[in-house]
């Protein structure tokens, strides 16, 4: 009987550009963390062998790349299900997001394909194209999509990202005061509930054109149309314009529907996959703090959003995206320069004539430019490249929960990570001073030198977020969780598994008693 396998999923910017399985990164063979895992894993559980390919993904900071990686990971898990081989997942940073997105996709596919016969499954696009190893004729397909051989999954320093549809003039967004995602009612598109209805907007001008009811279109006496004042061309142009607009609206509504489906599936997936989850994060994690600052919506708003419409009560404070103070305004040149003689003027030619232009730009253009640049920078930092989507919530749990809902790791381990990070800062401070001095002398060209790039890349280890797997105690804690779950035959049972670590026991109890927000 083959061993349980541990699949490691790296985070953003941690990929190997050459797709190598051997290297110094924590998830690669030969690394220090790899040796710690091999030594601490319980009997019957092992890392992938030398003849097995490790999991790779692009590591780019975009949600589309994370979703694509989640599909690739789910295909790998489905192959393991076909082989009836148990497995454990360990993800760092956005690698944990990739794991969670894969589990949400599995939940959606299980619900979508379970009640359909084989003929209907073939007519529904998505599964056969997404997973080459999927057999639609397999009667056990819905059960396999429940991933019964997933023994455990662990996330380390993962900010869970929750995307919601934006507000549009033709449908409601997640910030609308009358939106509720509870139950089966979409609640987001009251004007045009289905994207398939949008092309019907073309029916009216086409009927007018075909019945010759448009004004100004007359026969010329020979059974032919007289273009007259050009209403025929105008109607044709209106048809083309409506077609383009309807396609754009249909695309946005499809994104809205899929975002809504995934948001609801998240709440259904957690009771099934949650009992097998271990989340580890430090209260000093820089990446989690940064992501939270870009989406500061409180968890209370998330609970309100998933409350039935008649029971929502008073709406929490409206969430507002942070606004970066980017200086894009132009100031009028001063008449005189301070501390100089009054004879020296700072006045430019025709400056008085430009005063109205300054006013118009600063009042009308500059605020919009500032909001556009600020929004672009925020979306880039968030990795949000989904059209028509907002990053609404960032949490350390798979669902947004209030602060203080359980510790992210043992306090002594958290303090040890912080001390190691502070000690690393003191070590690299002289190197950074030398690099800054070199940049001051040689400019940015100094960055192109190999030795400077190597020193700067080594300075990335000063962060708590990138130093989790440098601590053997954290790896030992993960392996204890794997050992506990590998012995627990029914991870979804109401009773929590017995762990031989006090913090793990408390974490399991908190996870079992936690209610959906």
UniProtKB/TrEMBL annotation:
<dbReference type="Pfam" id="PF12697">
    <property type="entry name" value="Abhydrolase_6"/>
</dbReference>
<protein>
    <recommendedName>
        <fullName>AB hydrolase-1 domain-containing protein</fullName>
    </recommendedName>
</protein>
<keyword id="KW-0812">Transmembrane</keyword>
<feature type="domain" description="AB hydrolase-1">
    <location>
        <begin position="6"/>
        <end position="203"/>
    </location>
</feature>
<feature type="region of interest" description="Disordered">
    <location>
        <begin position="488"/>
        <end position="517"/>
    </location>
</feature>
<dbReference type="InterPro" id="IPR000073">
    <property type="entry name" value="AB_hydrolase_1"/>
</dbReference>
<dbReference type="InterPro" id="IPR029058">
    <property type="entry name" value="AB_hydrolase_fold"/>
</dbReference>
<feature type="compositionally biased region" description="Basic and acidic residues">
    <location>
        <begin position="507"/>
        <end position="517"/>
    </location>
</feature>
<feature type="transmembrane region" description="Helical">
    <location>
        <begin position="229"/>
        <end position="250"/>
    </location>
</feature>
<keyword id="KW-0472">Membrane</keyword>
<feature type="transmembrane region" description="Helical">
    <location>
        <begin position="198"/>
        <end position="217"/>
    </location>
</feature>
<keyword id="KW-1133">Transmembrane helix</keyword>
């Amino acid at each position: 009987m083959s061993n349980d396998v541990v699949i490691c999923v790296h985070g953003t910017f941690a990929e190997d550009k050459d797709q190598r399985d051997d290297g110094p990164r924590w998830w690669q063979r030969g690394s220090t963390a790899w040796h710690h895992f091999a030594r601490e894993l319980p009997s019957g559980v092992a890392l992938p062998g030398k003849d097995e390919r490790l999991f790779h993904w692009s590591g780019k900071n975009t949600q589309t790349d994370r979703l694509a990686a989640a599909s690739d990971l789910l295909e790998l898990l489905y192959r393991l299900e076909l082989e009836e081989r148990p497995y454990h997942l360990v993800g760092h940073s956005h690698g944990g997001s990739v794991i969670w997105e894969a589990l949400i996709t599995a939940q959606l596919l299980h619900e979508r394909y379970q009640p359909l016969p084989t003929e209907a499954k073939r007519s529904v696009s998505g599964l056969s194209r997404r997973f080459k190893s999927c057999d639609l004729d397999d009667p056990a397909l819905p059960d396999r999509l429940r991933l019964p051989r997933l023994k455990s999954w662990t996330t380390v320093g993962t900010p869970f990202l929750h995307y919601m549809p934006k507000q549009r003039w033709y449908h409601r967004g997640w910030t609308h005061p009358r939106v509720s995602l509870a139950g089966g009612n979409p609640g987001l598109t009251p004007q045009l509930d289905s994207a398939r209805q949008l092309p019907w907007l073309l029916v009216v001008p086409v009927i007018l054109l075909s019945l010759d009811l448009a004004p100004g279109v007359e026969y010329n006496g020979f059974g032919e149309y007289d273009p007259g004042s050009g209403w025929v061309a105008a109607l044709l142009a209106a048809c083309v314009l409506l077609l383009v607009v309807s396609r754009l609206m249909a695309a946005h509504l499809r994104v809205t529907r899929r975002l809504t489906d995934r948001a609801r599936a998240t709440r259904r997936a957690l009771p099934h996959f949650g009992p097998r989850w271990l989340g580890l994060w430090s209260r000093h994690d820089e990446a989690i703090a940064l992501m939270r600052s870009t989406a500061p919506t409180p968890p209370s708003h998330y609970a309100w959003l998933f409350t039935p419409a008649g029971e929502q009560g008073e709406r929490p404070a409206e969430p507002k995206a942070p606004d970066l103070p980017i200086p894009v305004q132009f100031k009028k040149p001063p008449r005189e320069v301070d501390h100089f003689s009054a004879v020296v003027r700072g006045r430019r030619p025709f400056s008085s004539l430009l005063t109205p232009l300054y006013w118009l730009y600063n009042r009308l253009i500059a605020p919009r430019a500032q909001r556009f640049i600020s929004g672009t920078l925020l979306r880039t930092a968030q990795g949000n490249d989904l059209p028509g989507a907002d990053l609404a919530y960032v949490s350390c749990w798979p669902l947004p929960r209030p602060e203080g809902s359980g510790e992210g790791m043992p306090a002594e381990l958290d303090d040890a990570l912080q001390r190691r990070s502070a000690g690393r800062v003191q070590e690299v401070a002289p190197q950074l001073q030398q690099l800054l001095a070199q940049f001051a002398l040689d400019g940015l060209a100094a960055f192109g030198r190999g030795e400077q790039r190597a020193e700067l890349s080594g300075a990335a280890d000063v962060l708590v977020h990138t130093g989790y797997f440098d601590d053997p105690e954290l790896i030992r804690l993960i392996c204890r969780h794997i050992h506990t779950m590998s012995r627990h035959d029914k991870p979804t049972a109401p009773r929590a598994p017995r762990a031989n670590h006090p913090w793990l026991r408390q974490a399991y109890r908190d996870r079992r008693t936690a209610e959906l927000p």
